[in-house]
Input
Amino acid sequence: MLKQRIITAVILAAILLSALFTMPFDWFAWASLAVFGYGAYEWSKFAEISKLKYQLLYAVGSVVAGIALYAGFLDFSLWTFTGQLTENNYLIMVLACVWWTISSILVLIYPRGNRVWQHQPVVKAVFGYLTLVPAWLALLTIREYHYLLDKDSGAWLALFVFSIVWSADIGAYFAGKKFGSHKLMPNVSPGKTIEGFLGGMFRCCGPNINCTLE
Output
């Protein structure tokens, strides 16, 4: 099982690095949108959409929503020439952070408050769009950081963000496997432990990982 995970991780990491550092930004934008579209397809199952044609329709809808926001609302502009977020992109990122905060609270208080979305396919479907589409735009925003000055600047910044996630995930996995005995949030994810959480935090922000970007 671990060997399979490592092989899969190495292959996916190679594909990601190739996309980050070799693709022109426009190509990266549409390729990453396709990946998020597949994520929407997987989300459709969580949203209790059972028929394949509706699952595919939901995935296509997420892609259309992404294009509509990026091309229509943002007019393909994420940054100003002075290195600031455009006004419309700033608004989307703020609203996205508000939503991600709300969704985090819903996870933390689970199962309290689950009547809002449990057995509510439409609500779950909306949650998916609110999560995935802004996440795609956030990735594009990071990738395009200082793009005109250095085409790889945003790629390194994106890799930094991914590295934080990977480090935390690796630390949590091995610490949980070796020391895990106290459940973290059994109602949300029965396999997660407090020890794994602490291991992930240490691996992310410990002496070997600098959590500040100089």
User: Anything to note?
Assistant: The chain has seven helices and no strands. Helices lie at 2-22, 25-46, 52-73, 87-108, 121-143, 153-179, 194-205.
